[in-house]
Amino acid sequence: MAITTKNRKQLKAYFVKNAIPTEGNFSDLVDAQLNQAEDGVFKLPGEPLSVVAAPGDQRRALRFYSTYPAANPDWQISLAPAQDPGDPASARPGFGVSDGAGRARLYIDPSTGNLGVGTNAPSDRLTVSGGDLRIEGDGYHRLKVLAFNAGVELVARNPGGTPHIDFTQGQLDSPDYGLRLIATDNNTLHLQGGQGAPTLRVQGDLVVDGAQNKLDTREQGSATIRAHDLAFGHSGRRGAPGRALVDSGDALVFNFGADWKSAAIHSPLTVNGALTVEGAVHAKGAVNAPAGLNFQGSVAHIDADGALYRHTDGQVYLTVDDTLYIRDLGAKDVAATFNTDQGNLHLKNRISARALGIGLGDADPAGPLEVRVAGSGGGWDRLVVTANAAWGNGNQHVTIGAGGGAGIMMHNAHIPWIAEEKRASIRYGMSQPNKIWWDVGLREDDSFHFATSAGGTPLAVRRGGIAVGGDLTVSGGVTTSGLQVNGALTVHGALNKLDVSEQGVATIRAADLFFGHSGRRGAPGRALVDNKDALVLNFGADWKSAEIHSPLTVHGDATITGSLRVGAWSLEATATALLIKCGAQIVARFATEHDRFQIYRNVNGQGPYFYYNSHGVFGA
Predict the structure, then answer these.
(1) pLDDT digits (tens, 9 = 90+) for 279-323
(2) SS3 for 375-399, per residue?
């Protein structure tokens, strides 16, 4: 666009001394002025300056240029701005600010008063399209939603989207986030940590509604169950559970009272102290004793019985008559012979000493010591003892480096880090007929896992606590500073016992839940009462007040019979009105009376005040 009228210097040249202006000169002078009737800019007496929009779909009223001439303005004001400058059908009546290319930047809807940023179709009081909403600056800032019914909604429109709230201490995006509260679907809410495993601390009560499958008890890295008896029972004998563990003072008793006919341990058992067996010892598999077998008895008894005993002087005696023979079952030839008269040991083709080491059953040992037995091959038919630095501390450690075996027992065993598999663990298995094996040990995130080849992690021990992937049943008491339950949590009996049942439901069967501070233990308050139609918190006002030190979400209606206080502010209801107060001062009033809304100038609940009445009239 170009301005075709003359500038002031040109016009003045027409009317200098001795000049004779022509009709065209006067026409240029007239055209150079703004005409209220033709140009859409006018000033009525007593009224402000007025601008009439130009014709066209967007009804543009003003253009702003930082410099002129220019191909496009910098900003434009339109009374029917278009969302798409190239689509006239996207124009909507309203007050709009667009850039030089006609793209919508700011819009006010005349019918609703809604404000749109980047859109001319705001669906709410403030709609931001294609960008983020940021509140920043020094000091303390809050996003406030003050209403009789208030809420914040996060909606992910894309299928599989995950609406979330991030809590971060530090600069924006550094770190990415600290804690993230994320909804993976419409039924599941997760707490994730951007810099490690998150910690959820509940300073008040923790209520679990619905089925859960995990119980995580943490107290400075230890799980504590305070109960002299740990009652445990299979589902088939639930009415009379056995006493699995009993604290009998000086001893911790397993299977107290022989409630079970036998106690089976399906994994290696390590006893760091003395082991006393009052009955017979039956070993269906191999017996491994790295520290030796000690048999107490006298020399006369050993001579008479010819058995293996440890004498009271600390010496071990094996008494045989002349020769000790070792042979294969059913074999004619003896594999090993020890002559006690001469002290000679004879072995048949079973020990090989090579430059690399000693092989038992192998003429070419792969390390300083190799034991090879009949097997399927591929390393599973041999035991190689060697040394390497796989533990990662710069030292060479004696290591079982290859092969497989059953019944191997090691004292002070160390499992090295397997870098390619990112683990330091032991694998147990396989079970029959499901072919499942367990992997137990350290993982890359410093946690200790009990996992199976079938997938999942039934148990994980982390620096922050213990995570149980399945149901956890506790028949004794549980004391914890933090509790996470993803499975069923059921409590039977007194408040010092926790019994998690198999059904996946956490249930406290009591009409009253009594709770008391240690200073008032003799008369605990009634914290929760099942009042049939209502669940009552702080029944009978046993406490002066009830405080919640964390966000509170109410999925149904919230009814308040008294006042609602937020800091110094409060909402108080009468029979026909709702008062907004700051301290004792009445700021505003909503009512069903003629004046539906009042704001008091002197915050005293009396006139003068601004009002909006039932006739739709505003006034003061």
Answers:
(1) 777 777 777 776 666 656 566 665 665 566 666 677 777 777 778
(2) CCCCCCCEEEEEEECCCCCCCCEEE
250 CB neighbour count, 10 Å cutoff: 5
Helix or strand or coil: residue 12? helix
Considering the domain architecture, whether residues 46 and 84 belong to the same structural domain is answered as yes
Per-residue pLDDT reduced to its tens digit, 507-523: 566 666 666 665 555 56
CA–CA separation, 41 vs 22, rounded Å?
28
The residue count of the chain comes to 620
Using the Cα atoms of residue 388, residue 391, residue 395 and residue 400 in order, give the sign of their dihedral: negative
Q: Which of 138, 166, 198 is the endpoint of a domain?
A: 198
CB 462 within 8 A of CB 197: yes
444, part of any domain: no
| Enclosing domain of residue 180 | 156-198
Amino acid at the residue 476 = G
Phi, psi of 212 (to 5 degrees): -130, 165
Cα–Cα distances in Å, from 290 out to 251, 317, 410, 560? 26, 18, 7, 71
Whether the Cβ atoms of residue 539 and residue 532 lie closer than 8 Å to each other: no
For residue 112, name the pLDDT band (cuts at 50, 70, 90).
very high
Residue 586 to residue 572: CA distance in whole angstroms = 10
Name which of 344, 188, 169 is nearest 179 in CA terms: 169
* DSSP state at residue 479: B
Task: Kindly report the backbone phi and psi dihedral angles of residue 497, in degrees, each rounded to the nearest multiple of 5, phi listed first.
Answer: -125, 145
Q: How many CA atoms within 13 Å lie on the side-chain side of 200? A: 15
| Residue 257 φ then ψ, to 5° | 75, 10
Rounded to a whole number of angstroms, the distance between the first and last alpha carbons of the chain is 49
What is the Cα–Cα distance from 65 to 278, expressed in whole angstroms? 102
Look at residue 352 in the predicted model and tell me its pLDDT.
Answer: 52
- The answer to the question of residue 279 being in a domain is no
Name the band, by pLDDT with cuts 50, 70 and 90, for residue 555.
Answer: confident
Element (H, E) at 463: none
Same domain for 102 and 59? yes
CA pair distance 77, 122, nearest whole angstrom: 18
Distance CA 429, CA 432 (A): 9
User: 3-class SS at 309?
Assistant: strand
CB 466 within 8 Å of CB 445: no
- What gap in Å lies between CA 374 and CA 361, rounded to an integer? 9
From CA 43, how far away is CA 591, in angstroms rounded?
43
Name the β-bridge partners of 49.
43
Q: How many CB atoms lie within 10 A of CB 176?
A: 10
Same domain, 46 and 118: yes
Q: Quick check: 472 pLDDT over 50?
A: yes
Alpha-carbon gap, residue 147 to 611, rounded angstroms: 18
